[in-house]
Amino acid sequence: MRISELSRTSDVPVPTIKYYLREGLLPAGRALSRTQADYDDAHVERLRLLRALLGVGGLGIAQARRVIRAIDDAASDRLELLEAAQEAIPPVVEVVGDGAGEVDHAASDDALARARDWAAARGWALDPATPMLAELGAAWAACDDAGIGLDAARLDAYADAVERVALIDVASVPSERALAARQVVLGTVLLDPVLAALRRLAQQHLSIRQTERGGPAPYDGPAPSR
Amino acid sequence: MRISELSRTSDVPVPTIKYYLREGLLPAGRALSRTQADYDDAHVERLRLLRALLGVGGLGIAQARRVIRAIDDAASDRLELLEAAQEAIPPVVEVVGDGAGEVDHAASDDALARARDWAAARGWALDPATPMLAELGAAWAACDDAGIGLDAARLDAYADAVERVALIDVASVPSERALAARQVVLGTVLLDPVLAALRRLAQQHLSIRQTERGGPAPYDGPAPSR
What we know:
The structure is a homodimer.
Chain A: H1 3-10, H2 14-22, E1 30-31, E2 37-38, H3 41-54, H4 61-72, H5 78-88, E3 96-97, E4 102-103, H6 109-122, H7 132-145, H8 152-171, H9 177-213
Antiparallel strand pairs in A: 1-2, 3-4
Helix pairs in contact in A: 4-5, 4-9, 5-9, 6-7
């Protein structure tokens, strides 16, 4: 199909398609002449993927390029694929400039050590070089900064719940290699907003139920430390 | 204390402090002269909060201003506070421009209806006007776009796990009003990165365990629909 039909089929404007072509996010079509090219269903599918990554996925162009490369270079087993995906996707914690000075939330050695000790106490088998431990450490330190009472016991309670999420994630990975790459990379990026929305809705549901009953939430786990 | 001491105590550079003062994120100090002001511990604490919101929280200046206002205007009960917090914090799904055209992921009516039907079938008590249903719908539609097999059954399995997270969230809210406001607003914003990091670490742990055992994950829930 020509670029105009690709635009209609995918519902992506022609200038945006040309932009993706220039940025290397969309492979070139088969050249028909010096100015015309032919596109196929693979291009339609790639455009749907880009919509998802750049839209809800919240990725920038450079991040989307890394994610697509990780899918195309699908590694041979789930663990390699998972590590490739975790490297390709944006960190959960980023150092953010505020326009006037830098607010630096890179994990300190202390924050990293606390996260590593906590994960070891929990018995989690992890790649010791995973950047995710530093990210957990930085996110945990920010909760301290803000005075949220997140102690190791409450983190453990969250981890119990999150392990159930991860179990579904890992079990949902198809065995076919190309599909697995797609599922691991996209599942990590695109399910974060789904889980965040579910968390807010569940908070609302529980708060409304609690208000109706007029009693405290039916939870007797660790209390916040402050 | 003077601004230079506030800077040393809080580890925030003087130009950044002045920027926060101009932007109304930090209340003015008590004027000592035309050019000098006196700051106190409340300013130190506010700066810690801003670090957390602008850093790990990933908020922009305008969003941080809304969050701070929600804390200052603390509502009278947990449910009002929760709704105020959910309005102040950034949506989990945003419409993102890509520099060449708009990639529009605002929830369609269909996406909203599917999310609403799913939540009703689950029996969740929700404010019918909550924007979170549209955000869930948009995030779910993006998963469809990307070909992730997220059907209602798998969403239910995720919701079972996320309800445990929300139960801890809701039970961790202190009864004292100002503390509660702080906990609800910050807990929603700052625990998202903690939970995302935990999810990635748990995925890694489960994948490594599974590879060691050479067998499939011990999960027999719904398979992805495609």
